[in-house]
Amino acid sequence: MADDTVRQRKSKKDTSEDEDNLFAGTPAEHSRGAVAQPTKKKSKKSKRSKDDDYSDEYSPWVDILRVLSFLALASCALSYLISNGESFFWGFQDKPWYLKVDYWKAKFNGPLVLTPEQLLQYDGSDPEKPIYLAINHTIFDVSANPRIYGPGGSYNVFAGHDASRGFVTGCFLDDRTPDMRGVEEMFLPLDDPEVDRHWTFDEMRALQQEELEVARQKVHDGLKHWVDFFRKSGKYLEVGRVKREDGWLEKTKQPKLCQRAQEGRVRRKVPGEEKKN
Q: Where, if anywhere, are coiled coils annotated (predicted)?
């Protein structure tokens, strides 16, 4: 009797479970059971472990190598552009002023102040020293062109000197001096009595004064041309000035106009002759 009662209760329990599970005994029961099972959340500890593994694998040397490679390529490209295709590695000639070491040395050390005797030591005869020349008391470093200003060069006569007068007259050896007195004479016409008689005395005086002003302006322009040439060349550096004793000009005898400059003078043209020419 007791066994029958237990069997009935068990049978009811199984029937109740089967009613609750309509998919019992079918393949869908397994899939439904799989869906019903809650998914397991990944633990934070496991996630941190993977992050730690990733951080352990990172190396800053890769980024450093990338930066260095970029800088090297940029340097080569910039060198190629500045040198107009001459070099990728900054080994080109005639570097611009901002790439010259001597330029920055002069900027930091300040301008040189040399006496004429000290300037003479930089005439190119000593290969350990730069080549200097001066014009209108301004010293320029012309070491960038030793073929011209160094020993044996066509303009080596100017090295170590302030040859302002020679730059204008063209007499390189005779006029290696900054004394410009009388240079305007090379631009004045020669006096000729046969020609001068076409003007009255007052007219001639006014004409001569006008010619003198024009001649002095030509001397000024000629000297300025050479100062600007060296200052703006891009090859040569302005490094200082020549210091002379006070009153040096009055203590020296005025140079005569050199033969070459004298031979370049022409006679004054008579009125109306300019129109014919």
A: none
